[in-house]
Amino acid sequence: MGTGPVSNSGFQPASHPALPRVVTLGGPVMVHPKVLPIMFAGDSGAGDVQSFLTELAGTPAWGSATSEYGVGPLTILPAVTVTDAPQSISDSGLQSMVASNTSSATAPWGAADPETIYLFVLPQGTIEQDSYGACCNEYDGYHDETKVGSTSVSYAVSCTCPGFDGPSYTTLQERTIDMSHELFEASTDPFPNTNPAYAQEDDDDIVWTIVTDGEVSDMCEFNDDANAVPMGATYMIQRSWSNAAAARGDNPCVPVVTPTPYLNSYPTLTAITDATLAPGFRTQGLNVPIGQSKTIDIKLSSAAATDNTWTVQVYDYQSAVVGARSPGLSLSLDQASGRNGDVLHLTIVPKSANQQFGGEAFMLVSDYGNPGDPDFESQLSMGLVTN
């Protein structure tokens, strides 16, 4: 494997499979999206939150993440302030707040509007918790839907969880990362339970839905360069998946913040059936019986020549994402780096199947350079294993 600079003269990207697509299930997106920030008295970061939302609506980052899905420009409504910040609140309590304040045209927050995202910005110390988990433990935010009379509306919850995204981020950055993630998704999939829109991947790439949850921001959140301050901006956002960029073979997480050409490492997969997901469901993956071993090619490709190699690491879904003590797969790469045209070899030994999808999953992480460097780039690919 070479390690020196490479010329683009005569360069050809190595062949690789098509990148995943986030597909719509037919529900609406927000053509005229608005955000109503719901703040709480005593939040010392409220001013920055409102400045961030204004910036998000006024810079290209919003359009780059949402316009190709049919979402229009973003309008930020005047914030409302709730006087008391409880230490704990439930999801049902938040839904009740939306309903009681949007029940009519004369209600405090106006009539319920299906094109408004009701954004609860919880201050530090206020924890949303219910049977699904709690802020700052299982998640730092989410978006959902609720009914106000006969009108379905979208709402999002952004918690303040210092350190949730790692020690390198400030509390303000953690907040704006989460808010951007949820707003991108709430606008492209406002009614995820009753009428989902851009909510999952194409059948061949359904493993991405299993691992990431499948909405546009989910698709980029595991990248080591997922969070960035876009050019011309002040506040940090989480980048989001672009089907258009993926179809072109460009970096699919936008806005792009590195001059490094798009690069990735692709497992060699075949057509398999996973009846646990749906009767006769066909996708791309591998079939390896529990306890047996299979070695596959990992093909490296970049859109243009790179000066250096990139590192490749492999992770088991059960351990890395679910947090299980016992991995679903034993995984071993014969090489830890390479560049366009190189082929690595991954040996897979299934240990135990996840009952949700009747198999196991793995992630390949390709990192070029070092985090914090201007040329740093991080990309993912994935594989599904059935037994």
Question: What class, by secondary structure content?
Answer: alpha/beta
CATH topology-level fold name of the largest domain:
Collagenase (Catalytic Domain)
Kindly state the number of beta strands. Answer: 25
Question: What's the end-to-end separation, in Å?
Answer: 34 Å
Looking at the structure, what is the overall shape?
globular
What portion of residues is helical?
Answer: 10-25%
Tally of helical segments: 7
The whole-number mean of residue pLDDT values reads 95
Q: Give the tally of structural domains.
A: 2
Percentage of β-strand residues: 25-35%
Please provide a written account of the structure.
The strands form 7 sheets. Strands 2, 3, 4, 6, 9 and 10 form a 6-stranded mixed beta sheet that branches. The chain has a 6-stranded mixed beta sheet with strand order 17-18-25-24-20-22. A 4-stranded antiparallel beta sheet has the order 16-19-23-21, with no helix packed on it. The N terminus is likely disordered. The chain has 2 domains: 179 residues, Collagenase (Catalytic Domain) (3-Layer(aba) Sandwich), CATH 3.40.390; 130 residues, Immunoglobulin-like (Sandwich), CATH 2.60.40. It is 18% helix and 32% strand. It starts with 21 loop residues before the first strand and ends with a strand. Helix 1 crosses helix 4. By secondary structure, the chain is of the alpha/beta class.
